[in-house]
Design brief:
This protein has about 240 residues and is an alpha+beta fold. The protein is about 45% helix and about 20% strand.
């Protein structure tokens, strides 16, 4: 059942005020920074939110990150009410994305100490198949930080900036790309569950796995893009410090 995703006017007003004034007492912790935006944990009236702002390292970075934030907002609207997807409270006055803050750990942090692995990966597969049934593919689940482990080992998916959607009127090329993206989600599930030991994939799970040369090309392209983007951001920060 869908949970409440509408903020009170008072809380929204405080969030907007804090974003306008950049009050560090509310933006309590920097979570992540990249070309898709800058994510902060924000505490307001005893509630924790994750707020994703545009990256203003340069005018181009600002436009790129705002595009990803707007795209991500549409994805969260489409996935509203699905268990394992953080609640989305909308956009602030300055276009920042306001999300439920998930108090947990990334899979990267817990992969070696995770208890109840079989049930966790069964739940994660159900979550992935559920978003696929809703016409959404994540496309970047091989990145372990995009999978969170919440209370009672509940898996969560985050960072939908590069997600794809499928609509009835989409043409062949869009459908092909979407289906390819879906397969990368499932390949990522296999990769994490079996820790890259593909020769140990159980028969029941083989149906979810399909490797291809295109998959390798996408990995190389994604790695190059991240390297290029982060390098530019680092140069910008170094120049600002001088």
């Amino acid at each position: 059942m869908a949970s409440k995703t509408k903020l009170s006017e008072e809380i929204l007003k405080k969030i907007n005020h804090s974003l306008r004034s950049n009050e560090d007492n509310d933006l309590v912790q920097l979570i992540n920074q990249g070309h898709q935006g800058i994510a902060f944990q924000m505490d307001v009236d005893g509630q924790s939110f994750l707020v994703k702002k545009t990256n203003q390292a340069s005018p181009l970075a600002g436009r790129i990150s705002q595009y990803f934030i707007n795209h991500e907002y549409k994805i969260y609207q489409r996935l509203k009410g699905i268990t394992g997807i953080p609640k989305c409270y909308g956009l602030s006055d300055d276009g920042s994305l306001i999300l439920e803050y998930i108090d947990g750990h990334s899979y990267r942090e817990k992969e070696r100490t995770l208890e109840g692995r079989d049930q966790f990966f069964a739940d994660l597969l159900t979550l992935i198949l559920t978003i696929h049934a809703g016409g959404v593919s994540h496309g970047d689940l091989k990145r372990k930080d995009n999978i969170l482990i919440g209370e009672n080992n509940q898996p969560y998916l985050i960072d939908f900036g590069t997600a794809m959607t499928l609509n009835p009127k989409d043409q062949f090329i869009k459908r092909w790309l979407y289906n390819f993206s879906k397969q990368t989600d499932l390949n990522a599930w296999i990769k994490h569950k079996y820790s890259r030991q593909y020769d140990r994939i159980e028969e029941d799970d083989l149906v979810y796995y399909s490797s291809s040369k295109m998959d390798k090309l996408v990995r190389l392209t994604r790695r190059f893009w991240r390297t290029l983007t982060f390098r530019q951001l680092r140069k910008k920060r170094e120049q600002q410090k001088k």
